[in-house]
Design a protein that fits this description.
The chain has 218 residues and is α/β, with parallel strands linked by helices. The protein has helices at 16-26, 45-52, 68-81, 98-103, 124-131, 166-189, and strands spanning 5-11, 32-39, 57-59, 86-89, 108-112, 135-142, 152-159, 193-196, 199-202. The protein folds into 2 domains: 1-105, Formyl transferase, N-terminal domain (Rossmann fold, 3-Layer(aba) Sandwich); 111-203, Formyl transferase, N-terminal domain (Rossmann fold), CATH 3.40.50.170. The structure holds 5-O-phosphono-beta-D-ribofuranosylamine (GRF). 5-O-phosphono-beta-D-ribofuranosylamine binds at residues 11, 13-17, 46, 90-91, 111-113, 138, 174, 177.
Length: 218
């Protein structure tokens, strides 16, 4: 069997993206293996999901550490111990400092439930719905020192309707997240993803120059 990319997944909650990655791996669609799942929140449901699949699931509670650096040093220590080559942030609600990023340069990916650079930060599905945008979606990006600011690997677009609540929109976006995130991890695992400045190239990616979305439809 080909060598699989060793990934470590950091979570803070529900872990539905973690589940999508686990399922993608189980179906043979993602050439990676999850060596460890770490949550900063002891009650995170994602820990149970990892446990069910026999994946080591650890808690590193940031509240137990004096500062961000100490917390991140512990994360780095564990991730290195498990031989992690790519760090996947799947609903991890802590901002990472250069201390962490230097340990995994351009080897940290995050999923964000909006079309960056619009709506960085938290609570963004509600913000997008309230703003009245006609489209939103999700973004998978490499993590740099800014918040939700790193080079973008992939985005998926969904329509936003004036009747949407943040919750309705979040559900619509989440379905896309579950498709896009495992795929990006697979592309990275296959060595097809290259970053040049802000631009990210995916070898062999399908292109469709004609694609366009109009909402409301014409
Ligand atoms: C997702 O909406 C993701 O985009 C954001 O946090 C949420 C995590 O959901 N970063 P889950 O824990 O993967 O279900």
């Amino acid at each position: 069997m080909d060598k699989r990319l060793n990934i470590g997944v950091l979570i803070s909650g529900r872990g539905s993206n973690l589940q999508a990655i686990i399922d993608g791996i189980d179906r043979g669609e993602v050439a990676a293996q999850i060596s460890v799942v770490i949550s900063n929140e002891p009650g995170a449901y994602g820990l149970k999901r990892a446990g069910t699949h026999g994946i080591p699931a650890l808690v590193v509670n940031h509240r137990d550490y004096e500062n961000r650096e100490a917390f991140e040093s512990r994360l780095i220590e564990i991730l290195k111990e498990y031989g992690v080559e790519l760090v996947v942030l799947a609903g991890f609600m802590r901002v990472l400092t250069p201390t962490f990023l230097k340990a995994f340069p351009m080897r940290v990916v995050n999923i964000h439930p909006a079309l960056l650079p619009a709506f960085p930060g938290v609570g963004v599905q509600e913000k997008a719905a309230d703003y009245g945008v006609r489209f939103s979606g999700c973004t998978v990006h490499f993590v740099n020192e800014g918040v939700d600011a790193g080079p973008i690997v992939a985005q998926a677009v969904v329509p936003v309707f004036p009747t949407d609540t943040g919750e309705i929109l979040a559900d619509r976006i989440l379905k896309m997240e579950h498709q896009v995130f495992p795929k990006v991890i697979h592309w990275i695992a296959e060595g097809r993803v290259h970053v040049e400045g802000r631009r990210v190239f995916v070898d062999g990616a399908k292109v469709d120059e004609e694609i366009a979305f109009i909402e409301p439809s014409l």
